[in-house]
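Okay, any thoughts on this one?
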Amino acid sequence: MFCFQCQQTAGGSACINTGVCGKQPSTSNLQDELVCELIKLAELSKNENKHSAVADRLIIDGLFTTLTNVNFDDNAIKEFMGRVKNEQNKISRPEAEKIQVIDLWDGDTDIVSLRSTLLFGLKGMAAYAHHAMNLGYTDNEVLKWFYKGLCEVNREHSVTEWIELIMEFGQVNFKCMELLDKANTESFGNPVPTRVNVDIKKGPFIVVSGHDLNDLSQLLEQTEKTGVNVYTHCEMLPAHGYPELNKYHNLAGNFGTAWQSQQTEFENIPAPVLFTTNCLMPPRPSYKNRIYTTSVVGYDGMVHISCTRAGKKDFTPIIKHAQKLGGYEHDRSMSGINGGHMLTTGFGHSAVLSQAGKIIDAINAGHVKHIFLVGGCDGAHPGRNYYTEFVKQTPMDTLVLTLACGKYRFNDLDLGEIDGIPRILDMGQCNDSYSAIKVALALADAFHCSINDLPLTLVLSWYEQKAVCILLTLLSLGVRNMYIGPTLPAFMSETVIKYLVENYKLNPITAPEQDMDAILKR
């Protein structure tokens, strides 16, 4: 196997024996083979000028299947690959057999780096398109770019041409994030600031992890009168801010912290867990029989809940399992990483921009001197405590916007308020990065300046491919002076990193105190 698509890749270089994520060589090789078949499907669709809704879905879900911590089930991947080949044959089997696919990981170091950057960006965008499609939302420009992107991955380009393609991709991903925001808000309402308890009530319950709000909505509806409570986990926390989800009284709170702690947090809980998207880790034997998967998520031996063609799912098996396990006999006190018992979420762009006047006044009055966006993926890398310490050291006259699971490093801290504005504003999932960009653009417009001229600094943590596509979108929008960690991507060559540092002032994180001094020019 060869895999260097995530931040925790072995030795900061590449996994070649077994994935740090737990992925076996057979699975890694099958996922690479699936990517190659998706490239063939894209090439064939383009050459024959035949684009179908089936092919659209296969490309999006297929790329998502190969994302880090999504699918570990070899049989499921083989079955999916069979569906891709069947679609190729429907278009033209003779032509499909003629298509040659480039060796993804072979060639000049810089070219492989740039090719990988585009491919991993496409994988990240596939996750966003998948969620939007599940709610019935698509965009023709986004769909067409999946075909274009996969075909371009299969071409030879100069360094300049690769950079241009990657920047073009960043703009398209911005449109995809906008599409997902529209899908979520039109389906479930605009998020509103909401306090979420992390303690667990007595009685049967289900923990839901991942990102898919549609799956959560269906589960809440089916458990509403069963006596089973539902708790969000990790990236599902922002669901509490959506009015059409929060209306369910059995959406009882949030369980645990970020995804990388699941092997200890799920160890002894008397409840089943549903994984709707990525963030699955190989389960320990002690709780493997309590894990359920759905959608593109898979792991050998786990119960998988499929959907009908209409997108409906029957969650009866997991509901009955929760009732059988019974939950805790008494209410159970739990806390976040820093000991807090309440979290606040729901500060999407609608909520923040409704307070834009107050924020602008606070900046003009000197009450808010700087705004930090500290967010991104969490992980088990030792250097990730940087983000906790960084936020703790932010001055009292600064705001901290946050999103994605990286916020669990500090989202249970009480940093107080400025003129009635909480100093920590949770804007949602990694899927909600569009909200942060929209707020930044609105503030830039209000102050008649560019984003780079605002008293705003982005401090990003990355782990997998969705963080990659967000970074590429920010770069394509011309955002500079970002800080990124805990390490730089292994798939980015020295030349590519040098280009980003010189042209976009992309800064690898150092120490919290040192970076804070540099940002605030102290």
Remarks:
- The first strand starts at residue 194 and ends at 197.
- Residues 159-188 form the longest helix (30 residues).
- The chain has 17 helices and 16 strands.
- The two ends are 47 Å apart (CA to CA).
